Amino acid sequence: MHDKILIIDFGSQVTQLIARRIRESGVYCEVVPFNLAEQAFAEFKPRGVVLSGGPASVIDMDTPRAPMSIFTAGIPVLGICYGQQTMVEQLGGKVEEATHREFGRADIEIVEDSPLFEGFWQKGDCDDHVWMSHGDTVSALPDGFGVIAVSKHAPYAAIADESRKFYGVQFHPEVVHTPRGTQLLNNFTHKVCGCSGDWTMATFREEAIAKIRHQVGAGTVVCGLSGGVDSSVAAVLIHEAIGEQLHCIYVDNGLMREGETEEVVSLFKDHYNIPLIAVDARETFLSKLDDVDDPEKKRKIIGGLFIDVFDHEAKQLGGADFLAQGTLYPDVIESVSFTGGPSVTIKSHHNVGGLPERMKMQLVEPLRELFKDEVRALGRELGIPEAFITRHPFPGPGLAIRVPGKFTREKVEILRKADTIYLDEIRKAGLYDEIWQAFAVLLPVRSTGVMGDSRTFDYALALRAVTSTDGMTADYYPFEHDFLGRTATRLINEVKGINRVTYDITSKPPGTIEWE
Ligand code: XMP
Q1: What is the CATH number of the domain that holds 435?
Q2: What is the pTM of this model?
Q3: d(Cα 300, Cα 292) in Å, to the nearest integer?
Q4: Looking at ligand 1, which atom is closest to the CA of residue 392?
Q5: In terms of domains, do 113 and 243 share one?
Q6: Residues 166 and 20 in one domain
Q7: Are 252 and 348 part of one and the same domain?
Q8: Which residues contact ligand 1 via a Cβ below 6 A?
Q9: Which of 136, 383, 431, 447 is the most buried (most CB within 10 A)?
Q10: How many whole angstroms from 193 Cα to the centroid of ligand 1?
């Protein structure tokens, strides 16, 4: 069994980053919301606990607390921001509203040496690159604690009870704005908690295979391949575990990018020799979408049809006991809500939503514990070609949500050609891997142009390219004008039906990445 760290989430926007930093150092960790922490702690048996930051104030009534059991278990605890404050309060110290709130870059001075700082900060050192975000501050320490770092507005910027191995930092070591933060977390997990750092993708692969075999037994599994990295990695891993007990189904809905169907089929059939049922359902999807205007309606039609086709194919196989899904860790971590209200649905995402209920199958989700970049690393470990692994994300409803306005097959054809040229130019310029996602959108606008000596009246195309780490927020990619000019010329010359090209410079928020 590997050494593990438990992260108790108090709702900070950056809790996931704590987990990523810790895993990068070869230590397995999981995030659990504070209200489920008591039981998780008892079951998980971690070598140490990290308490995350959060939006609440410990001064208020009824704000979240860590289970007291973590403080009596004899294991190290690191509290970050709110986590530090609740630890202090729960152990008998005091927290007050700060006279100066600190948001952003701050400087600290180290006043005591500590294993937490070993290798980079010594007594007397100053560092003006730590990132703070707090309205409250510790004002009296519990017994056994001493100050190890101070800042101008946070006299308890870092505290320690070295004998119990309890630490608290007011700043956020998990964000890039605290460059020494990764080393600090590393010191906590390796030096203070004694974790060995032996968690790698190779060990994950072996353990995941054993788990899949244990779960599935002699049963059969169906897996819907979308052409994306997640479902492909899940399928290859499951195949390695149970071989022919896995049946993969790929549905060609006529809304894929050029060459995508062929790539998926060849990856599975030729590269891996994994049996794959490729269903040509283009006509079914395209005819149902004809003339549909409303984006949500498009999504619902596609989601519903996908379930129908998939269900039909699975029945043809004589039924299956399990359904495999490429669910990732960020989808699993339950978000901690302080508003109590349900969040608004911006877009309905429904690749396989609804399938498990309808098909009454148990789920096999071997990637549930992984972040996107870890899935890519696992894909490499499994020998999936690099070009497949680094492919940009592509939405389940495919090109249908990139032809805003009335859906027609003609529009999808034009868009597919344009998309291919745009991505070709991006690859040629060596920019593909710098961009999170790039695609074209065929606008429902015709405008006047002149080509040769004739008047044209054709569609306008919008190009989109964004940088992002998780798709939750995004910035537009700052292409050189030359690149944009060259690409626009090629698009207008080579794609019949387009006579105008624009570049979308909206970030997310306020925009979303896709247009529909
Ligand atoms: P938005 O447009 O919501 O997209 O900013 C964020 C990311 O999600 C992708 N996306 C989808 N992915 N099924 C998916 O699997 C969907 O229905 C869907 N809609 C959007 C989008 O391409 C971007 O990467």
Answers
A1: 3.30.300.10
A2: 0.83
A3: 11
A4: 24
A5: no
A6: yes
A7: yes
A8: 347, 349, 351, 393, 395-397, 437, 471, 508, 512-514
A9: 136
A10: 39
- Cβ contacts of residue 208 below 8 Å, gap of 6+? 237, 241, 366
Same domain for 20 and 121, yes or no, is: yes
Could you tell me if residue 508 is inside a domain?
Answer: no
- pLDDT of 350 reads 43
In a domain, 415, yes or no: yes
Is residue 142 located within the same domain as residue 210?
A: no
Residues 129 and 213 in one domain: no
Is the distance from CB of 153 to CB of 100 less than 8 angstroms?
yes
Q: Which domain holds residue 379?
A: 201-389
pLDDT in tens, 161-193: 999 999 999 999 999 899 999 999 999 999 999
Ligand 1 centroid distance, CA of 353 (Å): 14
Tell me the three state secondary structure of residue 389.
helix
Q: Which H/E stretch holds residue 448?
A: strand 437-451
pLDDT value of residue 67: 98
Examine the pLDDT at 480 and tell me if it is beyond 60.
yes
Which residue reads 């110290």 in tokens? 93
Nearest protein Cα to ligand 1, atom 12: 395
Quick one: 268 and 372 in the same domain?
Answer: yes
Summarize the confidence of residues 221-244 as an average pLDDT.
95
* Band of residue 100 on the pLDDT scale cut at 50, 70, 90: confident
What are the catalytic residues? 81, 172, 174
Q: For the segment 302-359, what is each residue's pLDDT rounded down to a tens digit?
A: 999 999 999 999 999 998 999 999 988 877 775 565 544 445 556 655 444 566 677 7
Packing angle of the helix pair 229-242, 372-381 (nearest 10 deg): 50
Residue nearest to atom 20 of ligand 1 (CA): 395
106: three-class secondary structure by DSSP? strand
Note the pLDDT of residue 346. Answer: 62
In the reported structure, the alpha carbon of residue 70 is separated from the centroid of ligand 1 by a whole-number distance in angstroms of 39
Domain tally for the chain? 3
**Which is the closest atom of ligand 1 to the Cα of 512?**
5
Q: How far is Cα 204 from Cα 190, in angstroms, rounded to an integer?
A: 19
Using the 3D structure, point to which of 138, 169, 192 is the last residue of a domain: 192
**Residue 457 lies inside a defined structural domain of this protein:** yes
Among protein residues, the one whose CA lies closest to atom 4 of ligand 1? 513
Nearest-CA residue for atom 7 of ligand 1: 471
CA distances from 307 to 50, 285, 296, 368 (A): 41, 12, 17, 22
* pLDDT number for residue 335: 53
Does 395 map to a domain? no
Distance 239 CA to ligand 1 centre (A): 27
